[in-house]
Amino acid sequence: MICPPNTAALAALHPATLARRWVCALAAVLVAGCAAGPTSHVYTLTDPAPQATATARPAAPGQPPLFVEFAPIAVPERLARPQMLVRKPGLPSAQVQLLEFHRWSSSFEYELRDALASGVAARLGAIGSTSGVRAAGQPAWRVTVQVRQFDLVEGERADAAFSWTLRPPGAAEGLRTMSCQWSASEPAEPGVEALAQAAQRLAARAADAMARDLIAASTGGATDCVRTPAEDK
Question: 115-152 burial by CB neighbour count: b if 16+ within 10 A, else e?
Answer without folding.
Answer: bbbbbbbbbbebbbbbeeeeeeeeebbbbbbebeebbb
